[in-house]
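Interim report to the steering committee. The following record documents the input for DNA repair protein RadC (148 residues).
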Amino acid sequence: MQQFERDVIQQALSILDSHLKTKGAALQSPEAVRDFLRLQLEQEESEVFAVLYLDSQHRLLAFKRMFNGTIDSAAVYPREVVKAGLALNASAAIICHNHPSGDATPSNADRQLTVRLKDALALVDIRLVDHMVVGHKQIVSFAEQGWI
């Protein structure tokens, strides 16, 4: 990717970030989340696991890049995901990660992790809204697939 392209992406992220953090702005559609995540994670060369922490109205409290991995995996610690959610007083969360290979098809490990995180977050009353896997030009939503 050329520097000009990186600059354009950075400007788009800046605009999108300011809109998402505007008081009253909520993540009302999966498309809004997709656009945000595509800009954040699609070009990463290694796997990145992140969480969008939301308030009770699904307004963005924070986007946190929690764990960085290798080209095909990232170690994720549910304790840290829960701890960050509690610190932000979050009511809901959307977990996400990229597949640097470009194929957004979730693995069995992705599905197992989703169950573990959903259960861990539920213990502290944080609802897992979705798990999105970002590939090149595509994003798979666990919620849309009926897996959450």
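The mean pLDDT is 89. The committee is asked to note this result when reviewing the revised timeline.
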